[in-house]
Amino acid sequence: MAVPVAFFAVFFAYPVSAIVGRGLKTDGTWQFGRVGEVLTRPDILDVLWFTTWQALASTALTLLIALPGAYVFARFDFPGKQVLRAVVTVPFVLPTVVVGTAFLALLGRGGLLDELWGVRLDTTVWAILLAHVFFNYAVVVRTVGGLWSQLDPRQEEAARVLGAGRFAAWRRVTLPALGPAVAAAALMVFLFTFTSFGVVQILGGPAHSTLEVEVYRQTALLLDLPTAAVLTLVQFAAVGAILAVHAVTVRRRERALKLVDPAQTSRRPQGPGQWALLGGVLLTALLLILLPLGVLVERSFDGPGGYGFGYYEALQSAGGSGSTFLVPPLEAVGNSLRYAFIATVIALVVGGLAAAALTRRAGRLVRGFDALLMLPLGVSAVTVGFGFLITLDKPPLDLRTSWILVPLAQALVGVPFVVRTMLPVLRAVDERLREAAAVLGASPLRAWREVDLPLVRRAVLVAAGFAFAVSLGEFGATVFIARPDNPTLPVAVARLLGRSGELNYGQAMALSTILMLVCAVSLLLLERIRTDRSGEF
Amino acid sequence: GCGGSDGTSAGSGASKGSGSKTVTLVTHDSFNASEKVLKQFTKESGYTVELLKSGDAGSALNQEILTKGSPRGDVFFGVDNTLLSRALDNDLFTAYEAKGLDRVADGTEQDDKHRVTPVDTGDICVNYDKKYFADKKLDPPQTFEDLIKPEYKNLLVTENAASSSPGLGFLLGTIAAQGEDGYQDYWKKLKANGVKVVDGWEQAYHEEFSGSAAGKKAKADRPLVVSYASSPPVEVLYADPQPKEAPTGVSTGTCFRQTEYAGLLNGAKNEAGGKALLDFLISRTFQEDVPLNMFVNPVVKDAKLPEIFTEFGETVDKPATVAPEKIAANREQWVQAWHSIAVK
Amino acid sequence: MLSLEAATVRFGKRAALDAVDLEVADHRIVCVLGPSGSGKSTLLRAVAGLQPMDGGRVLLAGQDQAGVPVHRRGLGLMFQDHQLFPHRDVGANVAFGLRMHGAGRAESERRVRELLELVGLPGAERRAVAALSGGEQQRVALARALAPRPRLLMLDEPLGQLDRSLRERLVVELRTLFQELGTTVLAVTHDQGEAFALADRVVVMRDGRIAQEGSPLDVWQHPASAFVARFLGFDNVTPATVTGRAAATAWGKVPVPEGSPQGEVDLLVRPAGVLIGAPEDGLRCTVGVRTFRGNHVTVRLTPENAPVLEAECALRDTPDEGAVVGVRFDEAETVVLAGE
Amino acid sequence: MLSLEAATVRFGKRAALDAVDLEVADHRIVCVLGPSGSGKSTLLRAVAGLQPMDGGRVLLAGQDQAGVPVHRRGLGLMFQDHQLFPHRDVGANVAFGLRMHGAGRAESERRVRELLELVGLPGAERRAVAALSGGEQQRVALARALAPRPRLLMLDEPLGQLDRSLRERLVVELRTLFQELGTTVLAVTHDQGEAFALADRVVVMRDGRIAQEGSPLDVWQHPASAFVARFLGFDNVTPATVTGRAAATAWGKVPVPEGSPQGEVDLLVRPAGVLIGAPEDGLRCTVGVRTFRGNHVTVRLTPENAPVLEAECALRDTPDEGAVVGVRFDEAETVVLAGE
Ligand SMILES: Nc1ncnc2c1ncn2[C@@H]1O[C@H](COP(=O)(O)OP(=O)(O)OP(=O)(O)O)[C@@H](O)[C@H]1O
Ligand SMILES: Nc1ncnc2c1ncn2[C@@H]1O[C@H](COP(=O)(O)OP(=O)(O)OP(=O)(O)O)[C@@H](O)[C@H]1O
Ligand SMILES: Cc1ncc(C[n+]2csc(CCO)c2C)c(N)n1
Ligand SMILES: [Mg+2]
Ligand SMILES: [Mg+2]
Questions:
Q1: The ABC transporter domain covers which part of the protein (chains C, D) (predicted)?
Q2: Per residue in C288-331, pLDDT tens?
Q3: Is B135 helix (H, G, I), strand (E, B) or coil?
Q4: Residue B242 burial (CB < 10 Å; 0-12/13-18/19+)?
Q5: Residue C83 backbone zone (phi > 0: left; psi -120 to 50: alpha; other: beta)
Q6: Distance CA B220, CA B156 (A)
């Protein structure tokens, strides 16, 4: 517990409180009056209201659409399942500008809906909500599906023989067992959408704005730190309220469950009902995720002289142009992977330790720490980034210009994922299994390694996948810190998009496609990693 | 090391004492220079340039302000006239009169104490889709006044002045042209004439503007967009094969001029190197490298423009300008007023 | 009520149910016996529709159940490992089936109270299931299965973790209850006493097939095969050649009842039919381990050149260990087994 | 080996272990019997160190175990609900303890093979535990507990889900194994036959206390109280006034053995001591339900104005249901119970 606490104290609590403190303190005295002042501004209240309700709506919609997906991925075997599971995670790494493009192509003028029914959703809230579902589908599918695949199906069978229909059995037996995982996924989706930035701007138009945008504007553009500090506190309050609700609802539901080997629980769908469900989920994934991604891929091949690899070739030659603008794409891939790898390792170590500590201990302090771990998802990257600047400026921690800040900032976002995906599973592990290991001679540490670890293996992989994807796609912090000579893929994409000219745009699409590919392949490889299954003799 | 794979970036600029052979240039994301030119500087002065890019222009400057007194580098480049006052008020820079400062264009020097040195100028202007206007047999608009004429109804797309730099530039342009009293009225008319506001330049240019390659794919339907005067030559430069004529043009009467400055940071570890770098930034070698890397104009009179600029670009004779102090004082209020007219 | 026709379930190559035909008449209590792994639980799961079948049909009240979802079959199943719902307390577990069948709150509270009383856990409604002992959990599972009063109730080792006196009381009460309600019951048990006490008929399974079926008395008195005999705990089984009223065995001549099958067969001598007398009087055996079995003592007797025999005698008649005795056989306790 | 001193475990107000004192000598096999919920599992968990105690001490080989973590106590425990590791196959489950004790791969493979053979699951190493039948899981759990050969092995209903013949074989083999290895064993069982066959001593628990302790024969022949007698399955228990060699009971005068305690006591008549004769000859009873119990039949007899009696008789001597018979009592099968 010491490691995660130290990590969070140094790389989160201290920087963020420093920057907030700087905003709220003038000449050494706290100016709490600012809070009331900002909070009574009607435009800020509008933003707060919109931010909150769109986040709630997005979360609800995401759960609605993704829970059947989680079921299908947990319980059914079908060809291409692993690939599809990796692909639905791809949106996670994409820069929002690029995603905006894809969604506008589908929902906007001349888009699919426009052509078919003359419906345009751009600048409506629907576009925002759908894009949020697009981004966060995988969060639900993976965190919930991870636990689901390990639930003993006989529990549901017990309900069925007592007269419960399929849905009733699910609602009354499986859902309560899944509760903590669903809550964890919902919490993460809420935090992402609550702090949504690019999606709202691009798809909602300038009329829609979130708190996050305001914080960014006040900090990065206007350097109005007092206002930014108040807004950050408001975000804190909102996030804190949600965390409190989460803590209360989850605490009542956490129970030891009989976890089984996931390989035993999935089978080919049987009967028309199950096939229909599978078909429905695949169709949803196709329409909602593959289609937007497809638009990007299509554009990356759609050169001036018809389809071809022109933009990809152009990417290659850009390396030789002798400018600081572009590096060869392979190098950007390498940079991205390196940063993401380090960030993932940090996130896994810090988050894993935190999750292990949180499983065994209870009490107010621990619960508070649990909540603190989630806060990075609810705090603007600018706040953290600027906080770093004013705090990590003294040796031995003068990291302001060090590359390590990039993976550190990314890990800050990865840790909540690790904790939230691992905790529901860890807390479901029956204490008696650990006891069984202990009476067979395993020390507590060994028991953790031999019992908990294999059972949370899936969750760890899911968490690692997310930490990796988050780091791969992170832009807000990376763009502040990344050295110009080693940009990551999203930074390179953003640079290209910042210029006019057909080749620049095409290359941006090509690079985005490469980013998607890198993400999907990495996740697939990650899933192949198997910690010992049958156990060494 | 992981990130700093090559030797030049192995350490941090701030840790280097004076007499170091590295000079750190803190700048924004859009900064670019040819490797060749940077090597040239090393050859001439003996200093190696280390680049530190930190976000867009606004946040790069604000980061410098936050770390004032203990800067991460020696020279900062990238503060423009809309932000200049903030930099100067915060006492960010040490005065230094760069060698060759006499060659810079008139009116670009804004600080008589030489705390900042102008490096480039660029114009934010309305661009138009040539093909659209040719097909419609319509003259493209040339001035701010033209934009509110009924024949240009529903044709213009611009960016959010609250968060986008060209969006703000265009707003400032209208303020310069219409006056502080008139611009609100002008925007009401513009709004009535169907101006569309989107959030960022990328979206406006790639998604809404029918003149761009991406816009064509997206079936964009706005032939007028707020962009840069350099956008047409860039369209030519980054097209394959190169067209004989730029697909887009510039409405030269709708331009707002931005000048970007560099300055020696207060508390720089390598002041000598910083001074050498400032000298270099307005040297002919660097200045002639500027257009093709950052797509803005050199600030010195003796720099030659590349052919692609002279051939496909248009010169802006009377750009609108607003004094930096005035921008600093009124910016938020102007943007708010604009927001309630143009967006809500 | 229930009939299975050639019901087959395969796991990989092995058949857990191998073309099983079974009829259970209305209101009957049938106990399924069989060694561990012989397919008893699989049989119940197949009937419930929880285990997809690789062949054959399940009929309930004459209706083919193919395509009928589990919860519409109107049956109950108590799982071997209980599968109590950890998120619900004891009362809510028991009430679950009632709620699914739309019982009102008062009604269901009353039934829960009754059932918990029946299984000896009065007032346990609000307890967490994780805080129950093993036997208490089993009793809650039993109450939960009984609650909705299904027309066909299947119980998988319902009393396995309970002590004898509780089990005996429950057997009696369950029998009465089932008779009252007219419930048809299919129960798995490994306790023969329970099977005999509870069942109208017993089914002995072996490797996915039915090895014998009949009334308890029938099965006990006339095991169909050496397997069944051994499974029922009889160890005195030996190959024999029957001629008329006598069988030639390794233990010498053994009298057999009238009308026994003739020829090469297996012969069972029940321990009670092994009569211990003076050494000169019959087969000479040395007395080995004596096991005290409550009311009786079983004695292992080792003859010269013949397999060990097991004899049962009253406590006071037990010979000393190491003594040499003579053994005769009681015709009434020998059974000629039809070959495998 | 093991001694408990005033071991106390409370759940809320109720004591699951109430100041239990217990000594288990080296190499002994002790069986713990007791009704469901009487604290048997809690006792084992307390010894293992899995259940924090509210009072008392646990000593192993004379060492107070307070503060000694579970994995250092050098004992084994087989859980009532098995707790197999779901993510490991059968072989890895069994090998787990061996690995924890640093056994080599070849050695551990050999032991696993041996143990799986012992429990009747040869070649099951690579099977998934979720694909095992209930009894198969129990046997894997047993093998897992046996594998590291702990000095004190605790088994919580180790054979409860197995059929009789397998159980009988295992009891014999386990006894031999434990004797060979000199293992001290503390086993919970609800099967009295198992307890008698396996145990050197039995401990009968009641509500967290020890109700009786002794050799199986001892406990069986001289239950210490009406509770123990009833728990062992004897229903013919009644209050009595003993004077000399006779006891006055609701069933009339019953002869008692010489040297029986005198005065107001409880009296037990074993079913075998209820002798059925002609109606005029003794206590008049009506024959009720007859339950076939394998070798014997138990018969419920209803006297006029007295509690029901249970009698045991051989199959051929069984009276018809509804018949009226006369009952006498066999002095050798009556036991005067020391008061509660
Ligand atoms: N975690 C717990 N919280 C509260 N009460 C408990 C807990 N564990 C056991 N008990 C109670 O303690 C008593 C003794 O439980 P224990 O498991 O020792 O019984 P047992 O003798 O093993 O019974 P069984 O034969 O049914 O397994 C029971 O009444 C049980 O309900
Ligand atoms: N899901 C499964 N996958 C593979 N084999 C299985 C599966 N379930 C059961 N089996 C096997 O099928 C056979 C029959 O199992 P079943 O559970 O019906 O046995 P059972 O008669 O109930 O035994 P027990 O008395 O031990 O509970 C066993 O050999 C078992 O290993
Ligand atoms: C609404 C919404 N927008 C973006 C993402 C993509 N994303 C995944 S992690 C992360 C933070 C990295 O700093 C971001 C932006 C999302 N999931 N939800
Ligand atoms: Mg079974
Ligand atoms: Mg127990």
A1: 2-232
A2: 888 776 667 888 899 988 888 988 887 777 888 888 999 999 88
A3: helix
A4: exposed
A5: left
A6: 12
Instruction: Output the CA angle B284-B286-B287, nearest 5 degrees.
Output: 60
Question: Token pair 């409506």 is at which residue?
Answer: A124
- Tokens 């967009």 map to which residue? B225
Given a contact cutoff of 8 angstroms between Cβ atoms, the answer to whether B126 and B226 are in contact is yes
B301 pLDDT exceeds 50? Answer: yes
pLDDT digits (tens, 9 = 90+) for B174-219: 999 999 889 999 999 999 999 999 888 888 998 899 998 888 888 8
B49 to chain A: which residues are within 8 Å by CB?
A: none
| Nearest residue to A72 (alpha-carbon basis) of A2, A162, A176, A170 | A170
User: Nearest C-alpha of chain C: how many angstroms from A454?
Assistant: 22
**C156 CA to centre of ligand 4 in angstroms:** 7
List all residues whose CB is within 6 A of at least one atom of ligand 3.
A 92, 96, 132, 135-136, 192-193, 196, 199, 381, 413, 470, 473-474, 476
Measured CA to CA, the distance from residue D100 to residue D115 in angstroms comes to: 17
Structure-block tokens of residue D41:
């599992």
Q: Which of residues 172-231 of A touch C (CB under 8 A)?
A: 172-173, 176-177
Please give the interface size between A and C, counted as residue pairs whose CB atoms are below 8 Å apart. Answer: 69
Model confidence over B47-94: pLDDT tens digits?
999 888 877 888 888 888 888 888 888 999 989 888 898 889 889 999
Chains with ≥3 Cβ pairs under 8 A against D? A, C
Q: Contact C241/C263 with Cβ under 8 angstroms?
A: yes
Touching subunits for chain A (3+ Cβ pairs under 8 A) = B, C, D
Mutate to test the pocket of ligand 3, among A192, A203, A384, A468 (most ligand atoms within 8 A of CB): A192
**Option in C80, C168, C332 nearest D233 (CB):** C168
Q: Which of C76, C86, C87 sits opposite A161 (nearest CB)?
A: C76
Q: Which of D17, D31, D41 to mutate to test the pocket of ligand 1 (most atoms within 8 A of CB)?
A: D41
ipTM: 0.82
Q: What is the pLDDT of residues C58-99, one digit of tens each?
A: 999 999 999 898 999 989 999 999 999 988 999 999 999 999
Can you point out the beta strands (E) in B268-338?
A: 297-298
Contacts of C121 (CB under 8 A, 6+ apart): C90, C136, C139, C140, C143
Best CA proximity match to D169, nearest among D135, D194, D133: D194
Distance CA C260, CA C240 (A): 12
pLDDT band at B19 (very low <50, low <70, confident <90, very high): low
Nearest to C87 among A152, A157, A177 (CB): A177
Tokens coding C18: 């191998």
Please, what are the averages of pLDDT over each run of 10 residues along chain D (340 residues)?
94 92 94 93 94 94 91 92 91 93 91 94 93 94 94 93 88 91 92 84 94 90 90 88 90 88 89 87 88 75 89 81 90 80
Share of chain D above pLDDT 70, in %: 99
**pLDDT greater than 70 at residue C340:** no
> Quick count: other Cβ atoms within 10 Å of Cβ A330?
12
Nearest Cα to Cα of residue D296 among D312, D274, D310: D312
- Give the Cα separation of C122 and C133 in Å (integer): 15
Q: What is the DSSP letter of B336?
A: H
d(CA C112, CA A365): 41
**What length is written for chain D?**
340
Spell out which residues of chain A touch residue B14, defining contact as CB-CB under 8 Å. Answer: 398, 400-401
CA distance B79 to B28: 9
Residue B3: pLDDT above 90? no
**C111, pLDDT greater than 90:** yes
Burial class (CB in 10 A: 0-12, 13-18, 19+), B113: exposed
